[in-house]
Specification:
The chain has 80 residues and is mostly helical. Helices cover 70% and strands 0% of the residues. The longest helix has 20 residues. The chain starts with 9 loop residues before the first helix and ends with a helix.
């Protein structure tokens, strides 16, 4: 979680974590913990939905781009 949440109320922290979740910036462990929270807390689920609705149009505004063939070996190597 980012340093901006220090001292924030629970609703603000939930909203910030939801934004980080949707953006994909949480670490593996933070993401796993957040997904557990989301499974049992309807307010967390609503926060995620709100961020998906806010940010979704941005993804649609960017045209699809196929990366050059030479890019994929680097990606595969980084994931191995």
């Amino acid at each position: 979680m980012s340093a901006g949440s220090v001292g924030a109320g629970p609703e603000i922290e939930r909203d910030q974590r939801a934004a980080e979740y949707v953006l994909g910036t949480l670490s593996f462990d933070e993401r796993a913990a957040f997904e557990l929270e989301r499974a049992v807390d309807p307010a967390t689920g609503r926060a995620v939905t709100a961020w998906e609705e806010r940010l979704g149009p941005l993804a649609l505004a960017v045209p699809d781009e196929t990366p050059p063939d030479h890019v994929w070996p680097g990606i595969a190597g980084a994931l191995a």
